[in-house]
Amino acid sequence: MWNKTNIEEELQQLQPQNHNEIFDNFIANQNLRTSTPEEDLNSRLAKEGQSNAFNIDLLDSSRVYTIENIEKICVLYRLRFLSIKYFKPQLPKEAVQKMSRLEEEHLIRLQGLKVMAPSKLFKLEDKDDPLLFAPIGNGYYYLIHKWGSDLSWYRKGFVWPMRGPVHLLIALALLSFILTSLIPSGLFSKNEDFAQWFILYMFMFKGVVGITVFYAFALGKNFNPFIWNSKYFNA
To answer: pTM, whole model, 2 decimals?
Structure first.
């Protein structure tokens, strides 16, 4: 009845219609890149400085993604994008075969591999739909393989409140409205008016916010933009 979410298809929707634009931008970035003292997003994601010297002519342009688009999907669906060393499950045989094929075709040894997947699939350090990527430099990643089941159809909506503080407040306000509306009319007063309803709504809103704050602190929850590339559980 409800179609599950295919993360690879969601990534493809963020791509330009002409995939050759990606290579043009990638090559241009390589030619114009200069070293700066500031540490940008790409350098933070690849502190080890690992990238793979792929033969651009042999790559499938439709499988090359920018770190910006990867971040967008991770934030939308509350996913992590971490080094493969933190990935708990064993890689499927098909993924290993594709890695070997890439190494043979490009005469390289793949390094700096990263996986996009839900947090539960990673061995996170304390403070359902994996995609395997290889870095090709300048914030570009090549999708090697996708496996496993697609994400639940409701996941995007379910994690929507965790995109940021404003999203969370809107969700809590809506939840408080629903809960207040479920309270039978006249339960506390025979002549209930809007003022009384609003007071009850504010009481409900404060209660919902209090429970949420307690839950967030107790379990170390954080908003999606702050955890998508963090290896820490309480991030």
So the answer is: 0.69
